[in-house]
Amino acid sequence: MNKKLLLSSIIVFSGISFVAHADSSVSKAPTPPPTIQNNFGAWKASCTYAPATRAASLCIAAQQLTMQQDGKSVALGMVIVARAASTKEPITTRPYELSLMVPLGFDLTKLPTLTMDNGKPLNLPYLVCNASGCLATTQTTPSTMAGLKTAKTGHIRVTRVPSQGGGTVTINYSMNHFSDALGALETWATQKAPS
Q: CATH no. for residue 179?
């Protein structure tokens, strides 16, 4: 998969924005690529289309994980399932990537794990960290995708750094409507960009 495209898309999708200082002599910013998006419960699904071919180039289903603390919503991370077209292959033939965005302050030498219901934990290697958190990602297998589609709950486990007391933190979340979001991505990936 085109890691740069996927990573930059995940960063944009997860709400991390970069402000570009444009020269006032530039007449107009480029038109953003066509995108279809919809919410399925807590899951947000979107597909972006390449302007030249009108074919799907990136499709993402993601759930922002939060908790309430002192009456405020606090971000805990994000679960992301995405796939991108390559220069040689259309999106429909590409595998999905499963990614977790976890908060800072966890031990990067211990991989985060994702467990569906009471299944076997899946290790996700860290890819990059920025001021908003750390992204861990892995390519999915057909059995991983089948588990995601049928799961009721997901459990992310991360390990605190020793200076913060060590130990494991578990972030539980609902998988309700994930299969609906994934179904939309599958449909949108086979369609041309909306007019």
A: 2.60.40.1880
Residue 183: the pLDDT is 97
Q: Which residues contact 56 (CB under 8 A, 6 or more apart)?
A: 47, 48, 49, 50, 85, 90, 91, 92, 188, 189, 190, 191, 193
Instruction: Please state the pTM of the whole predicted model.
Output: 0.82
Adjacent-strand bridge partners of 158: 169
98 three-class SS: strand
Evaluate whether residue 25 is within a structural domain.
no
Contact 147, 121 (CB under 8 A): no
CA angle 8, 66, 164 (to 5 degrees): 90
**Of the candidates 88, 89, 116, 81, which has an alpha carbon nearest to the alpha carbon of residue 186?**
81
Q: Confidence band (pLDDT; 50, 70, 90) for 7? A: very low
Distance CA 103, CA 72 (A): 17
Q: Give the C-alpha separation, 37 to 110, whole Å.
A: 34
